[in-house]
Amino acid sequence: MSEYSPAPARLRLIASTLLASIASAGLVASTLSDLQNLTAFYLSDVWLLPGLILIGVLISIANDDDVARSTIALLIAGVLGATLVGLAIAAPGFRVEGVQTTMIDRGTTFGLLALLLIVLFGLAGIVISWVAGAFLRPGRL
Amino acid sequence: MTFPRVALATLGVMALILGVNLVSATNRFVTAYDAFDAVRLEMTEFEYVGPDEPVRTVVTITNPTGITVEVRAIELRLDAGIRRVGGGETRIARLAPQAEQDQFTLAPGEAQQFEVLLNIDDRTYVRGLGDVEIDWRVTGRFMVKLDEDIDEEWITA
Fold first, then answer.
1. Angle between the B3-38 and A48-62 helix axes, to the nearest 10 degrees?
2. Residue of B nearest to A92 (CA)
3. I need a labelling partner for A124 at 20 to 30 A (CA). Which of A46, A87, B120, B142 fits?
4. A80 touches A20 (CB < 8 A)
5. Which of A122-126, B50-54, B98-102 comes out lowest in average pLDDT?
6. pLDDT tens track for B45-80
């Protein structure tokens, strides 16, 4: 039986949540039609879903395949990531009065879409990681 | 190094690369909209001869931003009072000589004048107005492009 130490586990939960939120927001923003051509590194649309699933897998591994902690981390990362995506899309609306309503509305829509994508495909990643863990390390079940 | 630490490190690398993408894209997105908001079009000349002749107009487009702006097209509509009677346009794609095409690229702080001929379609109406002073109104829009990565944008003048 592995030794359980709550402090590093909590730190990993916080770190994985913050890193996953930035990574998922960046991934979604890099594949949105509005921002895709403006990114520093071009990323094709096909990487969006595998990327979000990979983030879910990594959250799960970072939290010792603990489904409850991984899911909490993913949900918080989803909310933070979606907020970042929404703010990125709405950003011109905070500077240019003429597009304020349009861009904030667009930011809200894409933020909600990002929330669904990050949470749903991240959960798929957590499930994949958990099932793989069950096969590779059956003693943990 | 344990699996959780490897996973965290991978997440960190992804966050770094994709975070740079997020910040750079947002920054360029805001800069583009700032530029679209700052570029101005104003009419400097309007010359009406008669209903059978096109109206000659000259518009000035000013680029007060710090980036180069390419004007792709100018579309103007001509109203006599409340009735639309014609219009005209200038498009860079239709200009053959390179010298004329270069004129459409505005350097930071540059202002450029463009001649746009407006054809009168509803000649009967304009002729019917006779010798009274006509309340001409010119409205329109122009298309600008900032760089190859950003889609062209119509700006209403």
1. 140
2. B30
3. A87
4. no
5. B98-102
6. 999 988 889 999 999 999 998 888 989 899 999 999
Contacts of A23 in chain B (CB under 8 A): 11, 14-15, 18-19
- B4 CB within 8 Å of a chain A CB: yes
In this structure, the number of other CB atoms found within 10 A of the CB of residue B40 comes to 14
Q: Does A76 touch chain B (CB under 8 A)?
A: no
The H helix count followed by the E strand count for chain A is 4, 0
Residues A27 and B18 sit within 8 Å (Cβ to Cβ): yes
> Which residue matches tokens 């702080």?
B109
Owner of token pair 């520093």: A40
> How many Cβ atoms from other residues are within 10 Å of residue A19's Cβ?
27
Q: Per the CB < 8 Å rule, is A95 touching B30?
A: yes
Chain B residue closest in CA terms to A87: B26
Nearest to A96 among B4, B8, B34 (CB): B34
Q: Kindly report the three-state secondary structure assignment for every residue of A40-96.
A: CCCCCHHHHHHHHHHHHHHHHHHCCCCHHHHHHHHHHHHHHHHHHHHHHHHHHHHHC
Residue B152 near chain A (CB below 8 Å): no
pTM over 0.90: no
Question: Are the CB atoms for B72 and B104 separated by under 8 Å?
Answer: yes
Contact A13, A63 (CB under 8 A): yes
B81: three-class secondary structure by DSSP? coil
